[in-house]
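Posted in: Structural Biology > Protein-Ligand Complexes

Title: Requesting predicted complex, beta-D-fucopyranose in pocket

I'd be grateful if someone could produce the 3D structure tokens for the following input. Sequence and ligand are given below.
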Amino acid sequence: MPRATFTFPAGFLWGSATAAHQVEGNNLNNDWWAWEQQEGRILNGDRSGRACDWWAGRWREDFDRAHETYQNAHRLSVEWSRIQPEPDRWDEAALDRYRQMLLGLKERNMTAMVTLHHFSNPLWMVEMGGWENDAVIELFAAFSRRVVQALGAHCRFWITLNEPNVYMSGGYLGGGFPPGKNDLKAGLRVLLNLLKAHAAAYQAIHETQSDAQIGIAHHWRGFLPANRGLFTRFDTNLHNKVFNEAFPQALATGKFDAVLLKDAVPQAKDTQDFIGLNYYTREVIKFDLSNKADMYTQRSFPRDAELSETGFISSDPEGFKQCIKWGRQFNKPIYITENGAEDSKDDFRRKYLLEHLHALWHMVNHNIPVKGYFHWSLVDNFEWERGWSQRFGLWGIDPITQLRSRRKSVDLYAEICRTNSITSEAVEKYCPEVYDRIYPG
Ligand code: FCB
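-- Reply #1 --
Done. Output follows.
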């Protein structure tokens, strides 16, 4: 049997990622909480409820779990509606609680990466029209400044926005997020305002903390044409342009081009210090005149794809390589800010994790400057409109009792984090199912 060790560069960050609304619990003052109260919005009528109970302090035990299993970094988000519960009020106690969390990471020798906006919005801001209102741009910059003033002593890595493209399609193209609109024009305006808000926040953060490292977490998704037909190829390109390219290209060039909406945003030019990439899967796109609801598109996965538990993800490490190669063009350090799969049984996850990390190692070995990897997620958490039906955690959770259960992937990932490498021993021990794929004879 061939044996080998695939080693990552010294100082590589190994961690997991979470988001405030998904783990904190009792975020009463934001649009997601309100959304959960409406019938039919969340699968099975689930609610975030106490979530993973982090706001009550359970982050401590979960950080211990991460630390004891050799993770040396964590990506978390702060909740705008807690820190600024009203337009003219900052909640110092909320800021202090986040300070405690960041100190908690420091005590455990873990590097913090903080996201300023991860999908949820304060209710007062939604009442103003949310991201459709241009006034939100400056409000977000002021919020970012306040957070960095308060927490900058304990964090240097900032993600202004999580997945602006997913936020836009989720909320404005019928994707099941609040505000639940189906309005492409409004959606593109929102995307443009998010871009301007990022640019303003980038400025504000650097003015506050000169050595800050700032980026976004960009959801990059592979789109494969189902056939060679003209319409299908056009549709695939359109997806690629609007979803994958428009936002990050504008961050590099200051030119926003989402095909149906173009604008010059010079203040956004060169406003990323690193490239954050969230990668889950690639999908197959087919033009379909009968599917008006999804903009005349039929989405699927390749016929022989290995699918995750709820069919959300096809395991596609080649797509991960493509994503990372795509990220190289910006000539900045790259962090994988999310990657993972939903799987309560933890068979799919172990294979997915290993094959994706092996693909990542290949890219690093081709001198692409990937500096860290954050697995989604540390513990099962509230998966937005899919509620508790999807289990993305290395640890499982019972949201009622708050009991955690350690999945096998914990040990696999711990071994990778501990040795900063993929070893044949670890593959043999924790995931023999893919040994032949990682070490072909
Ligand atoms: C990403 C989100 C994250 C989580 C994962 C599964 O799109 O950023 O909050 O929902 O998907």
